[in-house]
Each structure stands twice: as structure tokens, then as C-alpha cells.
């Protein structure tokens, strides 16, 4: 992605992004060669959207009404799918003993972001039609999938569909116009170059007749938004989005827990799952899901606060 930003040849941005996406998705298919024991996997196609449900053998008999997770993968709206994020959904299925419904929504160059949101909303509606209870369902996603998790819930509420019990965003993209992010200290310092790449990506995948302001979850109607957990790396560009959403939600009186890890990279629980910090972040996600579903052994759910990965208090940056 960073090389694409600096590219000076005659290939269009759209062409370069499409090529990158296809290459990474092709490599990710190699994960399918590794056997995954103790799991039940099923797929169904909903028009042009495909969903894959992952269950452990031990929890295969549990109805969706007992609890479910809808997972939306990241990839900058240009790459990603069942193969790239297989390890994430399997870890969630094993740790929570809940069915995890993974959505392979349409992406660039086939559609723009608003159509990706529509695909995810269709998957959420399907999940409810299959017997899942909104009060026992959590929607989660990383990076661009974090954007879709928040945007899908907002779209559901706008259409009169009952919201889920909770929302999880792992390094979520929450604004498309880049206005506030470009002034954040992390914009140019992000070690993965996310801040520099995003304007190019959004320029390709965003709605052609809009500046993206209305689609950005941070600008949405949030006064009835469900409890949320946001995880971010302290030095990443999208820490700005995480801090802004935390601020907006808490100002609206909504429950939002923001957890920030120092010394980590963008979406580290998804990209670097073997790290101790990634395991710690997954523990936080599992606890949040249990809180939302009322199965936690703790006395109270997560509150509207901001903490670092080691649990000490930390104030969001200005």
C-alpha cells in the first residue's frame, strides 16, 4: 500500500489496489490447506453476499438464540475475506463457545462503501431471521470491518431493525473524510503508514456522489447506540478515530470502553494473533461479549472509560 502511494507510473490507483487485493487474497487461500479440527463450518449465499458460520463441535447444538457473533473482516475495502481472517473467527468461536458468522461482503472494484454496508446489513438481518436474538448478538470487526460494524448497526437502527447487544471495533476506521485524522500526531508517525494510505483508498472506495461525511459512523446518530468496545494501538493513525468515537459516545451518554495498547501496530489482534498483547486484547473482547450476553462472572459490564492494555487509566489525546 505504501509503495502504491509513492508509485509514479501510469497505472491507475484503482488498478493498483485491485492487484494488491487479489494477490493477498490468493496467498491467504493457503490457510485452507491447514486442517481445522473440532469445528463445524457451513456457508450460505444471500444474493451476492456469502456468510460462513463457524461453530465448535462442543457448541454445535446451541441455538443462535443463546448468542452469536457477526464478524466483519478488515482489509481497506479492497481485500480480505474468509481466508485472511479465518484465524480470528476461529479464535472467537473457541474462546466464546458461540457461533461466529463471518461475512464476505462485496468490495472495490465491484462496489463502493455504501454498498458494502448494505451487504453487511443484509447478513445481520439474515442472522436475526435464523433465530438470533438482538439482545444476544454482538457485531465485531477490525479496521475497515470495524467501520462496517459501527455503520451496519447505525443503518439497522435507521431502518427500524433492533440493534445488537454490543459492538466491537478493533482499530476501526470511523471517519472517511480524513479531516480530523490528518491533524492528529499519529497521522504521519504511524509505522504502517495507514494515515498516508487512507486518503488514496477512500478516494477509490468511497461513494462518488458524497464526501463520506454522512457515512462516517463518528458523525452518525449515536444517542441510542448499544454498548461498544474499541481497541487500538497508541501510535496508530486510527487511534484518532477511536478517541473521537469514545468521546462522542460518552458525551451522548452511551457506554463505550476504549482500550489502547502502547508499542503495537494497527489491528494487532487480527494481524499478529500470536503476541501476548493480542491474547490480552482477545481476553477483553471475550469479557465484553460475555458482559453483553449476561454470561459474565463479573459483577458489572465494562464502563465508559479509556484504559491502556495494562489496565491503567489513560486520557484520550486531544
Automatic annotation (TrEMBL):
It comes from the Bacteria. SUPFAM superfamilies: alpha/beta-Hydrolases. This is Alpha/beta hydrolase. It holds the Pfam family Abhydrolase_3. One of its GO terms (molecular function) is hydrolase activity. The keyword Ribonucleoprotein does not apply. Belongs to the 'GDXG' lipolytic enzyme family. Keywords: Hydrolase. Residues 69-268 form the Alpha/beta hydrolase fold-3 domain. The keyword Acetylation does not apply. Residues 297-318 are annotated as: Disordered. InterPro entries: AB_hydrolase_3 (IPR013094), AB_hydrolase_fold (IPR029058), GDXG_lipolytic_enzyme (IPR050300). Residues 305-318 have a biased composition (Polar residues).
